[in-house]
Specification:
With about 170 residues, the protein is α/β, with parallel strands linked by helices. The protein contains 5 helices and 5 strands, in the order H-H-E-E-H-E-H-E-H-E. The termini are far apart.
Length: about 170
């Protein structure tokens, strides 16, 4: 029976997986703004963070593109009974269950200015919540290490630890 009708048996089917080469993916990221897919990138980046870092994220609510709550996503505290059952792709993710992290996602070409402005605006809000870390994800690879270090120092002065998500993580 199996040899005559293999499609009736689930274990005989070969699973096909889509392949996306690096150049196509990089081109797609570079042209997000041209196609008005900023919200798609934000959703993609948030889902990537949930899989790779910590699943306890609150998405942004309210208007987009200005006038928002200054954060694109943030963590919320979770009991250790729950977080002990999570899969952590990164060892750092365990800290996200009891610390407050803020996330910024950007498709802007000038991501450096966006990060600076976001750090200042988050620090300038009168919030009850104090964030332990600020993590940002952009569509560009972060190749300028000097600038990255400068942004980290600026964030530290305002009381934040700034962590870039590398494009290679995707």
């Amino acid at each position: 029976m199996r040899s005559r009708r293999p499609y009736l048996f689930s274990d005989t089917e070969a699973a096909e997986q889509a392949q996306l080469d690096r150049h196509t993916f990089e081109y797609h990221l570079e042209t997000l703004t041209n196609r008005k897919q900023e919200l798609d990138f934000e959703h993609f980046a948030r889902k990537l963070v949930e899989k790779e870092l910590c699943p306890n994220l609150l998405p942004q609510t309210g208007p987009t593109g200005g006038g928002d709550s200054k954060v694109d996503s943030e963590t919320y505290p979770v009991s250790s009974d729950i977080s002990d059952r999570w899969y952590y792709a990164a060892a750092k993710g365990r800290e996200g269950s009891n610390e407050r992290w803020v996330f910024a996602f950007s498709t802007k070409e000038d991501w450096k200015t966006k990060v600076r402005d976001d750090i200042k605006s988050i620090a300038g809000t009168e919030r009850e919540v104090e964030y332990d870390e600020s993590i940002w994800a952009t569509r560009d690879a972060h190749t300028e290490k000097r600038l990255e270090m400068k942004l980290k120092r600026q964030a530290k002065l305002l009381g934040y630890q700034l962590v870039p998500m590398e494009q290679n993580a995707a």
